[in-house]
Fold each of these.
Amino acid sequence: MAKIEKPKARKEYKCSKCGEVIKVGDTYLKGTPFRRSPVIRCTKCGLRGWELSSSEYVQGVGRVCECWEEDYGCDENTAQSIADELSNIFDETQNSLDNMPEGLQEGDTGQLLQERIDNLESAISDLEAIDYDSIKEGELGDSDYDSLTDEAKEEMDEAIKDSLREEIESALSCLDY
């Protein structure tokens, strides 16, 4: 497992993400992936454990689970967009399992891939079951959206987004990375 440290710079570094110079004495993040060169990041960019993995599955699922709102926003299309991305990861994982020799499919690696496939299938199903209109109706109750004041509409929109976030997070909670 890769480790992430937060040392103070003893020499000048450059952030591998934004290119900002990390000056001597500044705190920075240093990730040490297994058998690869360290990753240096400024504290503004941050560094997550899944970014240090050599596994495409871990990188893909980690990014979706932790960055979905940055990547897809939070609107009526978000759950389907995430489900589509996870479907791509599902297909790649299924292909990996299918292309393994039968003996290995029964071993630990095959079982791990099958568990990942099952979890992806569950998350995709849960995401596809999210109905934005039902969430909106649930938050509105008997209220007529068009008759609300601008301030009340903003509050309602935020409540709808909060409910959508909760449902998406719940759907993604079965995924390990």
Note: The chain has a mean pLDDT of 95.
Amino acid sequence: MTKSKRLILDKEQIAQITRRIAYQIYESNLAMKKLVLVGIGAQGFELGGHIAAELALINPKLKVDHFMIALDKSQPNGTVELQAKPSALEGTSVVLVDDVLNTGKTMAYSLMAVLEAEPAKIEMAVLVDRGHKNYPLSATFSGYQLATTLEEHIEVKLGKNPAVYLY
């Protein structure tokens, strides 16, 4: 039996959530002159790009850098590569960005990579928080909280036709 996908968030809702997260990040970092968004994997990087674009609309004078952490989300304890020089994060406010927060394992390994750069502050932003925490981490900025069973899956599609599905 094939599970059918159920639309959870459409294009407009994702845009609204992204805008709200950007405002929350901005308000949380009013004293900062520079902000670094670090996307976890391709999806987190793309979501971080959307948030960076919204931040540029909110305050064009705010310097926002945008980097990626490359890792295999199915095996996050493998190679975790911050695709930026550590000096780019040192002493700054960093926001780790991911599409879905599930157990927190991916976020935990990504956090370790960022901590090595010694930022002044680290926050976390996610589009969807499933709430199945196995690690003592929670998102500072969460777009949508969704209680799911362990058997259910969340699929986030960004790009041309953004949507979030539950199946």
Note: The CA atoms of residues 10 and 163 lie 5 Å apart.
Amino acid sequence: MRIVRATDATINEAVQIVKEGGLVVYPTDTVYGLGCDPFNVNAVKRVMKVKGRSKKPLPVLVASLEEAGEIAHITDEAYRLANKLWPGALTMILRKKPALSNVVTCGLNSVGIRSPNHATALKLIQLSGGFLIGTSANLTGKKSPRTAEEAAKQVGKHVDLILDAGASPIGIDSTIIDLASRSPRIVRPGPVGAREIAEALCIEESRIC
């Protein structure tokens, strides 16, 4: 495990690791993430082993809504939210497409997708093909790390590289909204509030809480 400052050179190094099936820790706007190629099943299984979980699906970070549409069905609500609140701290649960392995979603027909508002993360995602596993770089049940050092203490010995870009500006996990059910519903409160989401969807706040 190496902790390196995030530069063009080290981001390219991280990209190569991802493409070769390795694991990297990287900064986002919310917390530090633990990533790999979501289309590499062995790498995905390794992420789950590192985190100590096997029955909870993994979210996927995307460079844009265009990439999201390759692995999930984009609803009208998703378009509205992405146009208003992406890139940002909002994860949307959408019905997945066959292109994404069931291993990532633990057999569920839905997947959490987000585009982070962080230059290093976005560059890493874009250069890695537009997709990256986006789970937090912590052990299951432990606090999500805001810094590279905090991530290293939890998962450092199991990853190939840690990109350090300073503390994540928000410091808490993203808001999650379920758009795969009959009606939108916030399943994890976070930085993006219910009012912002309701305004973007042009509905009453009480309908999503």
Note: The chain has a mean pLDDT of 97.
Amino acid sequence: KNLKPMVDAITATKPDVVYFGGQYDLGAPLVKALREAGSNTVFMGADSLDGSDFIKLAGDAAKGVYYTATVAPPASYSGAKAFRDTFKRRYSSEVTGFGILGYDAMQVALKALRDAIELNDGKRPSRIQVESALRKVRAPGLLTGDIRFNSAGDRIDSTIFILKIGDDLTSRVAGVVKAGAEKK
């Protein structure tokens, strides 16, 4: 609760970056205290900083904060415009990046189920057959890109987004890191 010793130590060392590995409810007061102490060091964290609660707690101190996430703001997915428009018409609200990712996840699951049924001569497949089919799914051209898995079931060609909270307190993609499992 007492951030002063930590803030004093950070401001004394003048680091290039402070990486915060905790939750938004602790990160917001920390970045706010750093800014109030005159520190302009880059503040960065993980996806727990992605959200309106962090911004509400941090206020203007959230401006310029970076964080990493496995999903980007919806407008970052150029191939998802029609989906975003349809979602807004149907549900009278904006889709989130996680909504787009969830849609793609369902497409992968349905493809695995169809493939398992086909491999089982049109009959209801077992759970193991569906799991096996899921590991073999190749789903090109989805809203978030191509999805495929290695033999262990880990996604190949994942993306980690580096997002930055702008002066208008909205997040934008500041960088992209390609990641993912090996093709074992």
Note: The radius of gyration is 21 Å.
